[in-house]
Amino acid sequence: MKIFFCFLSSFFLFFSLPANAVQWIYGDSGYGDFPLATQFNRISWSTVGSIYQIGGLSSETYSTYNANTYGCSGPNNWCSVGVKFAQIGFSGGVIQFDSSGTLPIGTTSGNKCYITSATSIVGTSGGFGSDIHQYKEFRNTNFAINDTGWIAVDGACSNLTPSSPSISQLSIIVPEISGYIPMLVSGATLAPRESSLISGRDVSVIQRGFTSTANIKPISRIIACSEPTYSKTTCSTSHYVFFPNSIGPNVPDVSCDVSVPKEITISDVSTNDFIGKKGSDTIYAQCSLPATLSFQMSNNGIVKVGPFNVTTLIDNKSSPKITIPENGKNINISAEIKGNNKTVEAGSYEDTVVIVMTIS
User: Taking Cα atoms as reference points, which of 274, 289, 282 lies closest to residue 324?
Assistant: First the structure.
């Protein structure tokens, strides 16, 4: 008795230049809470540069869990996901206060107020903080302070507003920066979601990971301090402003080669001794990146082969999801006679099971 396999694959696509004299600071979380008190004065761009991706994705693939999934074997039933870093650059620009603002630009007293910019790069579908890292590391995300662009203005920050003559026409330089953003490249990406929270394994602090459908753009603030030095105790920030343009990262599609046996033979079957008789073989899968393959079989792998009722399983399941490492994996496929649907007579029997695979 033979069972033939028809295999179909449907692929779902997953969808530094150090800045000139910037000081990189950490936000208060892995997805970019800005670490200063906010004075909600609005700002705008007066000169804009460009945003761009530098090269392809990182060669390293990091292993973690997608905290927006459910139903897998990870912590909290999260599913495994592979992450690479995309290096994103921004050529800089100029920002200004909106002169209609009425709040003080800062909270400190003194004879001088020192003003500069703070900038990061963010996936706008995820939030308004920061998703950029100065280095390829899963710590709290970073912001870049223009450490050589301090502008000294007479008066205390607490006495100056956006409409003050010394502030209303002020142009604050946003310097050139680049850094790294986590990109989901395999596993449970929940397409068409643009972002998911990731945590565990290689990711020590919860982050946002993005797909190729995300909008990635810079976001800037104006900070005002009593000294020309960044400090949480002597500085405060304006409201944020997004850069007007964005990019969708270049995340290569995952491709997989899957070798499925053409047939499984169950032999040595007699007319009165057949229940539990079994045949098996191996599926071999290898992908260009770590990936999760989902298998489904026609009629859940249950097939009538002549007089026999046969159940086919992949990795001991009818519709498994299997994580495939970059070095490939062997996967068991088996067929077992569970019973008969009519009188068993001598003969040769065969039928077909259709297997559909997707990269999820």
Answer: 289
Q: How far is 222 from 360, CA to CA, in rounded Å?
A: 42
Q: Using CA atoms, how far apart are residues 41 and 24, in angstroms rounded to an integer?
A: 23
Q: How far apart are CA 157 and CA 111, in angstroms?
A: 9
User: Which residue has 């540069």 as its token pair?
Assistant: 49
Reported pTM: 0.69
What does the alpha-carbon distance between residue 72 and residue 294 come to, in Å, rounded to a whole number?
13
Q: What is the pLDDT of residue 221?
A: 97
**Separation of alpha carbons 269 and 169, rounded Å:** 90
**How many Å apart are CA 250 and CA 53, to the nearest integer?**
8
Residues 6+ away with beta carbon under 8 Å from 284: 258, 259, 328, 329, 330, 331
Q: What is the pLDDT of residue 191?
A: 63
Determine which helix (DSSP H) or strand (DSSP E) holds 294, and give its type and residue range: strand 291-297
Give residue 248's pLDDT: 86
Paired residues of 112 in beta bridges: 154
Residue 155, SS3 per DSSP: coil
Are the CB atoms for 111 and 73 separated by under 8 Å? no
* Rounded Cα gap, residues 289 and 357, in angstroms: 16
Residue 304 CA to residue 3 CA, distance in Å, equals 10
Ranges of the chain with pLDDT below 70: 1-20, 126, 191-192, 252-254, 360
Write the single-letter amino acid at 220.
S
Contact 187, 289 (CB under 8 A): no
